[in-house]
Design goal:
CATH class of the largest domain: Alpha Beta
Oligomer: single chain
CATH superfamily of the largest domain: Dihydrodipicolinate Reductase, domain 2
Strand content: 25-35%
Radius of gyration: 20 Å
Distance between the termini: 39 Å
CATH architecture of the largest domain: 2-Layer Sandwich
Shape: globular
Mean pLDDT: 94
Number of strands: 14
Number of helices: 9
Structural class: alpha/beta
Order of helices and strands: EHEHEHEHEHEHEHEEEEEEEHH
Strand order of the largest sheet: 8-9-10-7-11-12-13-14
Number of domains: 2
Length: about 325
């Protein structure tokens, strides 16, 4: 069992919606080492599961329901880890209750839902963040700065991939189209976001191909091009033997490869090649989730920033474009 530090006067008190498998990595583990973060309450669809989660990870309270959690007066920030199709309802409810919200990716299943969410954030004047945790790590900024600084010459091509092995087992939400499942929603969202980070918006989809199974894209690849004419390639899959991500930039005088850009402290590597010589660039040992939690703890009292709305909308729009080009539209389950 983890021992969580007691909240101090300036502590950020968090409530967790969804006793998910990602929550220990994304919130519990980094919170252990931050005295200014208090894990205050957890809620799950199954109250017994929430109780087990609270006991195992040292969460102070078990909320009777999601609705009970978002209205608690001892919570400042709500972390939501639900199927993407469920996010709009509880993001809006938490914002309307005056909470800041960190919501797992993908933030929604359509741009229309994202618009509703950020409208609610602006009305409540509370921040909403999509949990693209990798972007907070210094290694990602180092990748961007190295390429933009001309270390590999004129940028000519970019590739991003995120693949893994995810069997279609009973109850696996990522294999359920109605819940916002599919490789592009779950993994490709990172690859597309990384391409946008480097190349800027808009990216145009040239073509896309998918392997469909059980009504979802089990694997997908797409060719894109930036506004400046730089070609890009994206791939994601549930069907590979090994879980890995990779970001590659090719220039006129070299290349930069970022292995495991989504989790750089797990066998991550930044390999720079210049005119035939190779060297590794340093990677800060802190996890992406720790960096993300630090970001939230610095900004949870601030009003919403337009850049987060613009970024999440642009990423969802690109996901929709890729799926459409591959012959599959994202589900619209907005209420």
């Amino acid at each position: 069992m983890y021992v969580v530090a007691k909240a101090g006067p300036a502590a950020m008190r968090m409530g967790l919606i969804g006793a998910s498998v990602i929550a220990p990595w994304a919130i519990v583990e980094p919170a252990k080492h931050r005295k200014h973060v208090q894990l205050q309450a957890v809620a799950a669809r199954d109250p017994a599961r929430a109780a087990r989660f609270a006991a195992e990870y040292g969460v102070a309270h078990v909320a009777a329901s999601y609705a009970d959690l978002v209205t608690r007066d001892d919570i400042d920030v709500v972390y939501i880890a639900l199927p993407a199709s469920e996010n709009q309802r509880w993001v809006v409810a938490a914002l309307q209750a005056g909470k800041a919200v960190l919501c797992e990716k993908p933030l929604a299943v359509t741009t229309r839902q994202i618009t509703v969410m950020f409208d609610a954030a602006e009305a409540a004047q509370r921040p909403l963040w999509e949990a693209m945790h990798y972007r907070h790590h210094p290694a990602m900024q180092l990748f961007l700065d190295t390429v933009r600084g001309g270390a590999i010459g004129t940028l000519q091509r970019v590739e991003a991939r995120f693949v893994g092995h995810l069997p279609n087992k009973p109850g696996e939400i990522r294999w359920q189209a109605a819940l916002g499942g599919g490789a592009t929603m779950d993994l490709g969202c990172y690859a597309l976001h990384a391409l946008r980070n480097l190349l800027g918006d808009p990216l145009r989809v040239v073509s896309a191909r998918a392997q469909f199974d059980a009504g979802i894209d089990a694997a997908l690849s797409a060719d894109l091009v930036s506004a400046g004419g730089i070609p890009a390639h994206m791939a994601c899959s549930f069907l590979e033997a090994e879980h890995r991500s990779q970001l590659l930039a090719f220039g006129s005088h070299g290349s930069l490869r970022f292995d495991n850009f989504t989790s750089p402290t797990w066998r991550g590597q930044l390999l720079l090649e210049q005119n035939g010589s190779r060297r590794s660039l340093p990677i800060t040992p802190s996890s992406t989730y720790a960096m993300q939690l630090d970001f939230v703890s610095r900004h949870w009292l601030a009003p919403p920033e337009k850049q987060h709305r613009v970024d999440s909308l642009a990423n969802m729009a690109l996901i929709e474009d890729v799926l459409r080009a591959a012959g599959l539209s994202s589900p619209d389950t907005a209420s």
